Amino acid sequence: MVTNKFPAEIQIIGVNPFVFLPDSVLDSIFKEANKDKGKIPVKIKIEGHEFIQTLIKYRGHWRLYLNTPMRKIAKKEVGDIATFEIAFDPEERVVPMHSKLILALNENPDAQRIFDSLRPSLQLEIVRYISFLKTEESIDKNVLRAVNFLLGKERFIGRDKP
């Protein structure tokens, strides 16, 4: 795994802070990833603090987006110049389905059938949403909402229907 180090100014587009990567760094990552399209998983360090992130191409430019926790830990904000290290991350990123969602889908064959017919990105959105909830109460409530959404009875994840 090749690690590239570079300084960059943190910029913002809309409400999203990001940095541009030097062409030589992008070329190195593309070579390691064996691709130069789609999302590219990377491991990064900002001022020595490690994170996992994804490179995204938006409006014709590759960008490394920096969320608030990353910037707070690195003590860097928009307009600051930071030192970055970046490398392609070959590890598969899997978000496991929460056991309560598995159980609810097993208990409701119609919801399971509809879930299985969804495009993979929407399945992942539902799985991620439930998996990142923190309290048992919110998990229970949202598993029920997800099943009702799949059955066309309720809005969920900002959508009217699956």
TrEMBL record:
Task: Return the Gene3D superfamilies for the record.
Answer: AF2212/PG0164-like
What InterPro entries is this protein classified in?
A: AF2212/PG0164-like_sf (IPR037079), DUF1905 (IPR015018)
Task: Please give one Pfam family short name.
Answer: OmdA
Q: What is this protein called?
A: DUF1905 domain-containing protein
- What is the species of this protein? Flavobacterium aquariorum
